[in-house]
């Protein structure tokens, strides 16, 4: 209290000056129409600029949220379209099967939105870090996709973060198929361009065209069928000469990847455990 009194005593002339200035401006703008209009216009201009900045900030964060929503929606619609096409092609009772396909997707799959916080594309074994972890429901071996196609597989998980093994990694090996053709192969990346990968083990009797779409096959326990991978650019003979190797232009632009979704398949854990149990049973046992 003593310090406050000393401060006021020391700067009392400045305080009196500020009070008188404020009183003078108030009387000037209040009782003079011209000065009042100038003040009103200036205040409106400053307020307008402030609100404009505020609106831009709100719009920016709104676009981030909208982008996440659109990413999830794109993935959902692409998968749904693939399921409906498959139903129309393979089932005779189309009406009942279409209804079943529409109902199963939302119940079985849940998409966990995530942000890419670290990424590399020029190494032989690239890795990607996401801002979601165990507390968000992320588990090892979950699939990762974006609005334009497949991204990779969850490799490691911590409490709040996860590491993705993307397509752009020499250890990546994903089952895929040529859309509407029914031929299956393995997607691999051999380094080089981040937009080019290769599909191996396509049989020699396969019939397809350049620019046909390559999608996930659904044969693994990680990705549902029909998620976009890319388009066929070129066809090569394999090294053994008994199959084709396809050059594929990837639909995912890894150099500009920000928003992704992690696929939470409610049946994935059961399928993986069943497969591991079957592999354990097939292992040779030591004679007792």
TrEMBL record:
Top-level division of the source organism's lineage: Bacteria
Ranges for domain Rod shape-determining protein MreC beta-barrel core: 116-263
Transmembrane keyword on record: yes
Residue ranges of the TM segments: 12-31
Pfam families in the record: MreC (PF04085)
Example GO BP: regulation of cell shape
Assigned GO CC terms: plasma membrane
Matches recorded under InterPro entries: Cell/Rod_1, Cell/Rod_MreC_2, MreC, MreC_beta-barrel_core
Keywords: Cell shape, Membrane, Transmembrane, Transmembrane helix
PANTHER family xref list: CELL SHAPE-DETERMINING PROTEIN MREC
Family of the protein in this entry: Belongs to the MreC family.
Entry protein name: Cell shape-determining protein MreC
Organism: Hoylesella marshii DSM 16973 = JCM 13450
Lineage: Bacteria, Pseudomonadati, Bacteroidota, Bacteroidia, Bacteroidales
Gene responsible for this protein: mreC
């Amino acid at each position: 209290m003593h310090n406050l009194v000393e401060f006021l005593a020391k700067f009392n002339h400045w305080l009196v000056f500020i009070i008188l200035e404020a009183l003078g401006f108030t009387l000037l703008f209040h009782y003079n129409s011209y000065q009042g209009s100038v003040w009103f216009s200036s205040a409106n201009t400053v307020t307008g600029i402030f609100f404009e900045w505020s609106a831009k900030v709100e719009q920016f964060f709104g676009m981030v949220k909208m982008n996440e929503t659109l990413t999830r929606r794109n993935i959902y619609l692409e998968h749904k379209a693939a399921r409906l096409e498959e139903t129309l092609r393979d089932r005779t009772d189309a009406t009942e099967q279409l209804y079943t396909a529409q109902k199963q997707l939302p119940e079985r799959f849940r998409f966990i939105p995530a942000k890419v916080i670290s990424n590399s594309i020029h190494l032989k074994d690239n890795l990607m870090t996401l801002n979601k972890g165990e507390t968000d429901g992320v588990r090892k071996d979950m699939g990762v996709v974006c609005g334009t196609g497949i991204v990779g597989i969850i490799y490691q998980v911590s409490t709040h973060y996860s590491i993705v093994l993307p397509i752009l990694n020499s250890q990546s090996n994903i089952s895929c198929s040529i859309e509407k053709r029914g031929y299956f192969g393995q997607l691999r990346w051999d380094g080089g361009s981040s937009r080019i990968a290769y599909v191996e083990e396509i049989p020699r009797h396969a019939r397809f065209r350049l620019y046909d779409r390559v999608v996930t096959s659904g044969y693994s326990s990680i990705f549902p069928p029909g998620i976009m991978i890319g388009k066929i650019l070129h066809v090569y003979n394999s090294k053994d000469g008994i199959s084709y190797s396809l050059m594929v232009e990837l639909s995912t632009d890894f150099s500009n990847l920000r928003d992704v979704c992690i696929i939470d398949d409610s049946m994935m854990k059961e399928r993986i455990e069943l497969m591991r149990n079957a592999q354990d049973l097939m292992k040779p046992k030591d004679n007792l």
